[in-house]
User: What shape does this take?
Amino acid sequence: MLSRTLSALAAALTIVSPIAHAEKAHVHGVAELNVGVDKDTLRIALESPLENLLGFERVPKSDKELDKVRRMASQLRQADKLFLPTPGAGCKLVNVKLESAVLDPALLGEAPVAAASPGQAAARTPQPGAKPAHADLDGEFVFQCAQPAALQGLEVKLFDAFPGYRQIRAQVVTAKRQSAARLSPKANTLNW
Ligand SMILES: [Zn+2]
Assistant: This one.
């Protein structure tokens, strides 16, 4: 009886461990946001399950899915509609970088990489018979602020643009302090 319980437990652990041992928690509906303020530069890094943004996490298979990826990329590139720094700080979006292991950089609006390493190309090619895996989207959004002293917060509108988000775990690092917050559709503003 005990050995049966133990073997059932072992089986359960075997199934759970690949997710538990992932380098970072990948939970659908949840994303990580790292916000850094350095002088007049506001840098926002988003690490998100693709599921939250697209409803799937693999190479797009149809024209409809390709369109969905392009629409997502174009929304994320208009990051000044998704991330609203304190209005008085005069922050302007100056750079956006988007990356995902399962999406072609060109689909995401990134310039083609001149000499892609064979390893990178292979990562985007679906392996026959491979098990469906999870995939993330990494985004970096950089703002330059004319009045950095007035910069005291950030409203995060990702919840409105992409209903797949339930919670965003945010960390803020400024020259003066570090803080963390959990954002939700009803509490979508970071203050520092
Ligand atoms: Zn996933």
Remarks:
- The pocket of zinc ion is lined by residues 26, 28, 49, 51, 57, 134 (CB under 6 Å).
- Residues 72 and 142 are 18 Å apart (CA to CA).
- The longest helix spans residues 2-20.
- The helical segments are 2-20, 50-54, 63-77, 118-124, 158-161.
